[in-house]
Amino acid sequence: MMVFAVAMLARTAPANAAAPNTSLAHALNEIIAMEARVAPIARRLATGAAPWCPALAPTPGWLLGDRRLYDERLWPMVRAAYAASDADAPFVAALDPSGPAAAAGLRVGDAILAIGGRSAESSGASPHARIAAAHALISTHPANAGLSITIARRSAPVLLPPTPGCASEFRVEAHRQVKAEADGTTVYVSAAMIRLAADDTELAAIVAHELAHNILRHRARLDAAGITRGVGRQFGRSARLTKATEVEADRLAVWLLEDAGYGADVASRFWTRYGQQRSKGIFSAATHPRWRERVASVTAEAALLRRLRTADRRAVPPLIANPPPLE
């Protein structure tokens, strides 16, 4: 699991940034705190669904940043905030305290030089490409095998025990826009969206919905269906199919939340409160159900989950066991 660091800080830095800027330091510390919240939630959701997730990968329980995301003028402040080294490599931005990486002795700020014996450094890659490449090293490693991690402050690799989970990368973005999205491999959650979560349980509902998109391969399925992206997505068949994937993600998120121990009813609570607050936002878009529809859908799915799990405690979500075609 990885995180997109505060690249916006570089664009908002004052011309004379010799002294740390108080507002930038506050923004950075807020993002670091959000990363620390997301890391355990993401691992908990990913590993909880491992018995039925169709695509598994090792789940270290971390989020990654990269030095190159920051303007060099800001790096001293960033380095101090993360207790990072000056190594030109991806670094640990957040850890799940109960995850395998933390248990193996990794710390926030550790520079990641190799994953599974393969280099995580690339002199010609952009920071985004380098983070994505590090995730690819994880996602292509056998999920049920131990994962070796080479960090800058140790000469010998650290071996993480096998901890399979749903394959996905997670990033926190320093956007002021309330948004969360998934692109097939990565879950993105904006800082503004995280601020709207009443607690970590509601934050889990946000992350679970986006993780469900990746598990159900919605980006690939929509592309295969030839939907129009951009403004055109709001109309006709493209809007209808996109809305269908949103309904599916809502439904599967209920199972993710249940199997992670948050409870199947969390989604209903979140969408009710969020919908009442923001009913004129994304809930009126043609690509998304209105909030009352969402609440009805997740409430019905929670009831279905309880019936199926009463009959068979290992019951697999219907969307996994028998996925419907997009049509």
Summarize the structure in words.
The protein folds into 2 domains: 159 residues, Pdz3 Domain (Roll); 125 residues, no CATH class. Strand 6 and strand 7 form a beta hairpin. With 327 residues, the chain is an alpha+beta fold. The radius of gyration is 20 Å and the shape is globular. The protein has a 4-stranded antiparallel sheet with strand order 5-4-6-7. Helix content is 45%, strand content 13%.
Notable features of this structure?
alpha+beta, 4-stranded antiparallel beta sheet, Pdz3 Domain, globular, disordered N terminus, 327 residues, 2 domains, 3-stranded mixed beta sheet
CATH topology heading of the largest domain: Pdz3 Domain
Distance between the termini: 32 Å
| Main structural class | alpha+beta
CATH class of the largest domain: Mainly Beta
Extract low-pLDDT stretches. Answer: 1-7, 10-15
Indicate the proportion of strand residues: 5-15%
What is the CATH architecture assignment of the largest domain?
Answer: Roll
Average pLDDT, all residues: 90
The main pleated sheet reads as:
4 strands, antiparallel
Total number of helices: 12
The name of the CATH superfamily of the largest domain reads PDZ domain
For the secondary structure, the number of strands is 11
Count of discrete domains: 2
Radius of gyration: 20 Å
Topology order in helix (H) and strand (E) letters: HHEEHEHEEHEEEEEEHHHHHHH
Helix content: 40-55%
Shape category = globular
